[in-house]
Design goal:
With 207 residues, the protein is mainly alpha-helical. The protein has 8 helices and 2 strands; from the N terminus they run H-E-E-H-H-H-H-H-H-H.
Amino acid sequence: MASPTERDEGAAVGGRHAPAPTVDSPPGARLPTRSGPLAAADLWRDRIEAAVSGFLLGGAILLVVYTVLVRYVSAAHAPVYTDEVTVYIVMWAVLVGCGGITHKRLHVRADLVLHVMSDRLRFICEVAANVAGFAFALFLGWYGFLVAYEAWDFNDLSPTNLRFPLWIYYGALPVAALLMAVGHLRVAIALLLTGPRPEPVAHASEV
């Protein structure tokens, strides 16, 4: 085993120290960074999705905290709609974030299978998976829209005293499906532009 001094001397090249090795991402986990209008649009979309999700989740937390405090001070004046409204808010916050998860490829993936594939076969499977995901997201969005439209057309309301319009609740599904469709399409286009790439080599981190 090399001593610390030998490792430092081996890492120094031309008076500069080489960066410490790190663990690379799984194959295809991240797409190459690109610039241009599409990259700017992706950046703003991610920011808007994160802001909307954060605003909704923050509002839900504040509503729960307010209800708890009021119940301790004066239980008779505590709002009775907190549980119902919190469910609606959290549902919207979670589904709005689906588009960013899809575009960043942070969803569940069979990385173990991808590691044993050749570069070309892995490329074909990833493109096919994103095309299938795009088609399924469109299918889900269309039927989600039909459900939300039917709830609006029949003026469906929640069975609680709040009488909340259910089309607002159901509307989260087509919106999330549309965002996922856009995410799958962007990933498929990026893969087609870059082509098959070799699997990155994983290195252990050195402390």
